[in-house]
Design a protein that fits this description.
The complex is a heterodimer. Chain A is mainly beta. Chain A has a single domain, classed as Roll (Ubiquitin-like (UB roll)). In chain A, 8% of the residues lie in helices and 30% in strands. Chain A is built from one helix and seven strands. In chain A, strands 2-1-7-5-6 form a five-stranded mixed beta sheet, with helices on one face. A two-stranded antiparallel sheet of chain A has the order 3-4. Chain B is an alpha/beta fold. In chain B, strands 1, 2, 3, 4, 5, 6 and 19 form a seven-stranded mixed beta sheet that branches. In chain B, strands 8-15-9-10-11 form a five-stranded parallel beta sheet. In chain B, helix 3 packs parallel to helix 4. Classes of the chains: A mainly beta, B alpha/beta. The interface between A and B is large, with 46 and 54 residues.
Amino acid sequence: MRIETIYRGEKVTLLVNGKAVTAHRGETVHAALLAAGCRVLRKSKTGTEFRGFLCGMGVCYDCLVTINGLAGQRACMRLVEDGMEIRIDEPDL
Amino acid sequence: MSRTCDVAIVGAGFAGLAAADVLARSGLDIRVFDENPHVGGQLLRRPGGTSHGPGGFEFDGIKRSGLRLVARVARRGVKVNGGTQVLGLFPGNTLLVQGGDGRVSEITARCVLCASGARETYIPFKGWTLPGVISTGSAQILIKSSGMLPAKETLIGGLGPLPFVLAREISRHGGKVSAILDHGGVLDKIGLLRTLPRNLPKLLDGAWIMVLLALRGIRVRPRMRILEASGKTRLESVVAARASGEGAIISGTEIRYQTECLAVGFGFAPNIELLLQAGCIAAHVPERGGWVVQVGDILETSMENVFAAGEVTGIAGARKSLIEGRIAGLAIRERLGCPAPATPQMLHGLACERRDELRYGAVLNRMCRLPGDWVKGIQEETIICRCEDVRMADIRKALAHGFATPGALRKACRCGLGNCQGRICSPILRDILAAVAKPDPARLAAPSVRPPIKAVRLGALAENEEIVTVGSASPPDP
């Protein structure tokens, strides 16, 4: 949920599982995904549960997503870039 | 980038920057590394991924000093390498570093200062792994760095002052707070009064927050425990109940909240992995937030020319970090033979200020401890190691088979073997071991840490043939 009164960078477009999502420069990938309604980011190690982000500061490695083809990237430690291709595990899309 | 420098500083928060400020004045060649894309640590986050973007006037005095420090360090020409991970510290003070471009390189420094800050700690409950359960710090980061609320309505729980600060931030930006489930009691906060008059501004701020929360109708429930978070693929509801002074759940007091976001904060733990991997001696000091690196008066660790400053020596907040950064900076300056060393009066003044801040930290860290034997209440299906999906039942089974140290449990059920390398579960596991297994203190040794201390692609290591240190000796697994 973007706060309306806060300064935002220019618009960029991300491709999340092939679907175009609008974000703003300066936002982290995990925040942009949250704003797009994607709370679930991946399946857990044993595939029995889902995980989203927990710590938001690069410690917990729960928010791992695939960015531009490279798997296991911490979504909370990367700023969005125009045209970034992100893959997450369903079911939030 | 040259392969050698005078001082390598790990962490560009208050402590690292304060040291850089002191050292840059002496014309030393210093390098600062920080994993985050922005400068200023966790406290100085600003929208747009910078530490100095438009954030409006800053009312908090310590944040104002921090912003001035960021500007001063930049003016002195100190370059902070953002988005850069330090993967290891090896004999001869050689650091293995991964830059933002993914390239791994080595740099050898005459002195190393580790100012790698702290992370949040957790008290696990059934369902705490569901998407939508986040930390209070994480919620703050969303607001401060990305200008985003964690949800339309957020339920907050935990210990210490952070849940209250978060509630103010959320409601200030138009978000709703369902309630604050304070795991402590009203009386726990009285200890803070002992830190007067030094912390009068902080306590007044705290009182003001309580008034604001009351005015906005945000309910604060003392002595609560979260029993369960549930939902199909993501958080949908939370059940909490009241606990007695000894920590036992009072039946009949259960409340269910429908919410898509629960933010929990139970205090902090120092990030001492780099120092442990290097071989520095650490000690478990609950008043300082758990495992802390041992340092002398000039903040040198048990290893020569390796210094530590800020939260890694004890959780106490930004003001202590500023003071320790200065102390370490002055000590390193003297060690490297720079002219105009600090006067004894100056050092004495800093030492006194540091002692006061440590006292304040002790009160805060005490507030962040649950009374009684909370470990007993952890349900069997509760996940302890989030990376490897290790449940409390697995741990109890391994304990019953005699695996009674963190190292043994790691081998028995993979607890702590995942991507975060035990950063989230090791403080929890230590409390479980202390409570359930009741082993002798020697068995509760500091967790062993091996390089690389952060997850790195093997390809990134293989790409640079000049790297020689990765295979060199590291301290043995106790």
